[in-house]
Design a protein that fits this description.
Layout: H1 4-14, H2 34-47, H3 52-65, H4 70-75, H5 92-108, H6 112-120, H7 133-151, H8 157-162, H9 173-183, H10 207-216, H11 226-239, H12 247-257
Helix pairs in contact: 1-12, 2-3, 2-9, 6-7, 10-12
Length: 259
Amino acid sequence: MITKAEIDNLVKEYETEEFIKDDPVRFPNRFKDKKDIEIAGFMASLVAYGRRDVFTKKLDQLFNLAQNEPHNFIINFEPEILGDFNYRFGKPDDFAQIFSIMKELYKKDGGLEELFKYGYNLTPHPALSHKGRGESAFTMLTTVTDYFYSRAKNPRQGFYFMVPNPRNGGAMKRMCMFLRWMVRKGPVDFGIWNFMPASDLLIPLDVHVARISREMGLLTRTSNDFKAVLELTENLRKLDHEDPVKYDFAMFGYGVNNK
């Protein structure tokens, strides 16, 4: 099993600004305004799956359509702006529905931060909850997706893929990644949301991180699902109680060093 000293050294090596250029976090990193950052981050998280070189090109196209003004793009969104923009499962109508719902969210309900905050506060603080942090995170994520689902009109596969339902038991990787960007503060992450501590974040789990964490001896569950996310995050909390998801960078670094 990897030691705390070894994994902490990997974090120090890879949690640097150099990490940004090859990661989807580079898209929200273009902006300074808080609403631009959070909207850009959410938009990037919708498309951040598949081959990195392919989805980053698609994100470049999307931000060009948005004229690199994410908040303005959402507030004034009309489906015609998208033309035939699509990416794999996500068809033009899927993107149009998501962005139209975000338009309502920002015009009527405060925005993404208010939505996530509302969901987070629906359950007791994890320290007071008999089911722990997993219950709090699960409720927050279901609140967010329920908001989108309740406003969608005849949603299709692409919509549900980009805004997945935690009740299905999936890892919610892209949503956890987005939250890491918004809540953590560091050379890569923005730390612009303060309604929850970094200690309550969950590790963004994909096939790569799952494989590496098993090699490190940090994950025993064989399925890459939400239960695996909870197991891995809890083991990472034993290494750093206050900031367990900083080890996302170590997983990346370990993979690079052991190709």
